[in-house]
Amino acid sequence: MTDSRSRQADALIEGLQRDAGGRLTVFLGAAPGVGKTFSMLTRAQEQLRRGVDLVAGVVETHGRAETAALLHGVPTLPQRQLTYRDRTLQEMDLDAIVQRAPALVLVDELAHRNAPGSRHERRWQDVLELLDAGIDVWTTVNIQHLESLNDVVLRITGIRVTETVPDVVLDRLHDIVLVDLPPRELIARLQQGKVYIPEQASQALQSFFSTANLTALRELAMQEAADRVDSSLREVRAAGGEAALPLRRRVLVAIDGAGQSEYLVRVARRIAERRDAPWTVVTVQRRRADEATQREIDAAFALARRLGADAELLHGASVADALLDHAAQNNVSTLLLGRTRERPLARMLNRTLTQQLIQHGAHYEITIISTPRARARSRRDRQLSPSPGQGMEMLQALVACTLACAVAWVAERWVGMADLSMVFIVAVVLVAARTRASAAVLAAGLCFLAYNFLFIAPRFTFAISARQGVITVFLFLAAALVAGRLASRLRMQVVALRAANRHAHARQQLGLQLTRAASIEAVASAGRQALEQALEAPAWLRIGSDVARSGSAVPGDTDLAAADWSQRQGQASGRFTDTLAGARWWCLPLLDGDARCIGVAALCFPQGLARLAPEQRQLAMAMVDDIAQAALRTRLVAELEQAHVSNETERLRSALLSSVSHDLRSPLAAMIGSADSLASYGEAMDGSDRRALLDTIMLEGERLDRYIQNLLDMTRLGHDGLTINRDWIGVDELVGSAARRLQRYQPTVQLVLDIPPSLAPIWVHPALVEQALFNVMENAAKFSPPGAPVTVSARLQGATLVVDVLDHGPGIPADERARIFDMFYSVERGDRGRHGTGLGLAICQGMIGAHGGSVQALAGQDGRGTLIRISLPLLTPAGHPDAAAA
């Protein structure tokens, strides 16, 4: 009752504070262009006809004729002129409006930033001053400008909105008008130029104004309007002392950290999604939770936030009262909680949580979810006899008690031991260390009774003659129970640690195998082997069209149907599930980061296995997730590699087309021009002119032939089609032949040849080596300044012939010397400027490399020019005298 009156008082105070000033009406839209200003002016015309004292403080028409027409007849105050950086800016005259003191003022674009020199930095601050002055304000704003939704809008549109309005402004809200327009109509208005000018409209359509963005913003605007209306109704009813009416069907799910919290969160998300309702996950904390419980609650809260829910921690002495109070304050219509283990006494006294909620929350929909753990417990309770494993543990307790009695009898009779309680405590500890807590409790009870019956006077009765004996016996029982509990807990921790170690080792081995997998097929094979080793069961994997199967077991038709269903639905099926449970294989989907199924994994466990252990299930699911991520990574790497190859192919194609369009057309143009001149004016020319034209045709034809030959040579080099037919030839003959060819094409070139006559002939393919030398010498001559010589020298270095070609050009940058041997690569400065195809040195390297040699680009003398060094190993044919010596 006190809380209800407090909420009523708070609501009354807030209402009085809001009504003390002017009333704020906001025309809310999802995006620019939906018609907020148009709607505001339309209603303003109605107010004028009713005689309301109304003025337009600032209205932005953005050049729209329909909107400007609605300003006709609306009193408008002059704008204030401000000068900023030699520019004249216009802003709303706040002082003039306050002095005029109208009943209602129109202020467009609430999120606008005022010009420097204004009293307030933002327009919403002007609006707050007008409201404080008792003036009603009508304003417009788009949903993306609300401060609390800034991050949400960024995730939707990818654009960070900088001009925002604090939500505290909307706390002054008296009325909200949602101005809505379907996205397709808004896009059509944008394309027609009714929102922005054509240039801005085209850019907006490519970024902000997409159908998906507009639909999401529209939904966001509707939610904000609904929340404001819901909040207003809640405050009105609270001020009247009435309970709130939930207009939106909010779902509240309660978790307790007892092992099924994340399951409840996922179920609640599906229920809320089907109802299109907001939802909240809460837990009621009456005392400090233990570490395991707190860890589970934290994980469930994190999952809830990722799935779009709110998560809150409640405090209270009563769980039911805390849940109902939170539901009343937050307009909850549905309470969802898991099925809890109810004690018989609480059920008899009508004090279970479910019964309390039903009694006190009659107007709520209460949904009880049966968790997998509750269903398993229910099945165990229905069983008349314990399972074989439990029976064996009970038998161990009985045997331990019998052995303890025998040892105690021997210790008392032959050793003279007086305090025999420690013998029975040791028996209880041993049982607890090997079994579960239930068997340890049974052992403690049996040992307690046996110790009392056989060794406490009077013997062979359960009666105890001395008071000290009673205390001793019950202290023994307490010590046995505590020791058994601690030993059992330690055993469970050791078992869990061993399972965790096994899981970590299995996943580590899987990770090592997956890192070596370079294809989807290899990932599937490595994953199958790791699953079989870790779970000791045949495995079968299918990722796309790649299938990895075990030779010992093959899925049948029902198993393949379960696998297909899992891949389509992204859920587990087959054995141990409720879908196609008749299958022999347990099928798990391989999901990528966006919950899309990229494959399926299946495991075949022995037929006698009734259910899968939780640790095995968790390990299998974790390994399947690792395999899915590895397959996704491999696929992305393959796609990136394919994209890289495509880009490189496109680059080479573009370079080849550029080369052909320039370097091949140039000689063709010269040849065609000379031939045309001969055809048109040949009879009028003297012999020397005709000879000059013919020489031009000859030279340009040979130049064209060299280009084509380079392309053909490069093609043969790239496809291993170059045949090396070696023969003996002198070094001076090779260099001299290449020099004569170059001087025939470039008569003005100056060559300095330094070829020692003592150099012996070499065994090479003469034509190829001559072509390589010619390419290098031509490249050097092309970039040497006029009058500067090109020096060609040859010498022996051990068993290698070294030929250096030195020019005096501008040189090649050090970081680009290795790249000049790439096809179609041309340096924009230096010796590889844009004067050729970019193939000459690449062909040279290929030809010399076919002989086992190498080509290097080095700096010239004194750092000027470029030195191209050709290195050829000295080889001899089989049967030659020198070959035997070598």
Fold and architecture overview:
The protein is α/β, with parallel strands linked by helices and 886 residues long. The chain has 28 helices and 24 strands. The chain is flat, with a radius of gyration of 45 Å. Residues 343-350, 381-388 and 828-835 have low confidence and may be disordered.
What are the SSEs and their pairings?
Layout: H1 2-20, E1 24-29, H2 36-49, E2 54-58, H3 65-69, E3 80-84, E4 87-91, H4 94-100, E5 104-107, H5 123-132, E6 136-142, H6 150-157, H7 167-170, E7 173-179, H8 183-191, H9 198-206, H10 211-239, E8 250-254, H11 261-275, E9 279-285, H12 291-306, E10 310-315, H13 319-329, E11 332-338, H14 344-348, H15 353-360, E12 365-369, H16 372-382, H17 388-415, H18 421-434, H19 437-455, H20 467-515, H21 520-535, E13 539-543, E14 546-549, H22 557-569, E15 573-574, E16 586-591, E17 597-603, H23 614-681, H24 687-718, E18 727-729, H25 731-745, E19 751-754, E20 762-764, H26 766-783, E21 790-797, E22 800-806, H27 840-850, E23 854-859, E24 866-873, H28 881-885
Parallel strand pairs: 1-6, 1-7, 2-5, 5-6, 8-9, 8-11, 9-10, 11-12, 19-21
Antiparallel strand pairs: 3-4, 13-14, 13-17, 15-16, 16-17, 18-20, 21-22, 22-24, 23-24
